[in-house]
Every structure is written in structure tokens, then in C-alpha cells.
Amino acid sequence: MDLCHPEPTELSSGETEELQRIKWHRKQLLEDIQKLKDEIADVFAQIDCFESAEESRMAQKEKELCTGRKKFNMDPAKGIQYFIEHKLLTPDIQDIARFLYKGEGLNKTAIGTYLGERDPVNLQVLQAFVDCHEFANLNLVQALRFQEGASDLGFGG
């Protein structure tokens, strides 16, 4: 006699019913496990799809930034307009000034050209741009060296 798999004739009717219930529960549990596996696979597929879409959006944004920089370096006013239209920059004076201050990928001469325009908006951006610079706690030599760097933008000596 095999103790793990007894012959059905060796079980009482109560034990046979209990065995049937156990088999039924086992079948239900295996079905539930399969459903969970399928749901997990779906979630992973959605995550992969989301990551792929996010990478695509990031690549598109980087492409737009590159195009905007090129436009800015050729015509600063049109470049700023492009950045704003593509929501890469807000029309806020402070945002534009900080963007120019960082100058990532922007030609310094083009920045100077934009800041040198006499349009009221450009003058406000110029003031905000100057405010981005920290001259506090600099001695005269350090401030002049900073001034020399600013001359690359068309300002100063």
C-alpha cells in the first residue's frame, strides 16, 4: 500500500469527499496562480510600453532642444520664440534670463545680440540676466575677471 496515494477503495466515504474537495481547491488555486501570472505579464508589458514611450518623448525633447539651439544661434529672437512655442521655455522674463545665463549649447555672441536689443522685453531679460550673476564677496580682481568673461557676450572691455 502506498501511503501517499492510497487506493480509492481503502478510503472511507468521508475521506473520499475530503480528497475531492482538496483536488477541487488545488485546481482553483492553480487557476488563480495562472491568472496572477497573466496579470503580472500584462503589467510588465505595460511598463515596457510606458518606458519606451518615455524614451521616445525624451528623444523628441532633446531633438527640439537641439533645433532650438541652432535657431537661437542663427537668430536669437526666433530661437527664443521656438523654445517658447515648443514649451521648452516659458515666456517668463526670469526663465528666459536663467536659460541664457546657463547658456547650454548657445553661442555667447548670440546671447549678447539678444540681450543687446533695445526692445522692452529684451531690456527686462537683460536686467534679470545681470541679476543672475553673483558679484557679492568678490574682490575687484575677481569681479574684473568675471567682467572679462562677460565681454565675450559683447559687454564690457
From TrEMBL:
Provide the alphabetized UniProt keywords.
Answer: Coiled coil
Does Coiled coil show up as a keyword for this record?
yes
Q: Which residues form the SEC7 domain?
A: 54-145
Which SMART domains does UniProt cross-reference here? Sec7 (SM00222)
What positions belong to coiled-coil segments?
Answer: 19-53
Question: Care to name a GO molecular-function term for this sequence?
Answer: guanyl-nucleotide exchange factor activity
Q: Which domain of life is it from?
A: Eukaryota
| One of the GO biological process terms | regulation of ARF protein signal transduction
Q: Which Pfam families match?
A: Sec7
Q: Which Gene3D superfamilies match?
A: 1.10.220.20
SUPFAM superfamilies, per database record: Sec7 domain
Output this protein's name: Cytohesin 4
Which species is listed as the source?
Rhinopithecus bieti
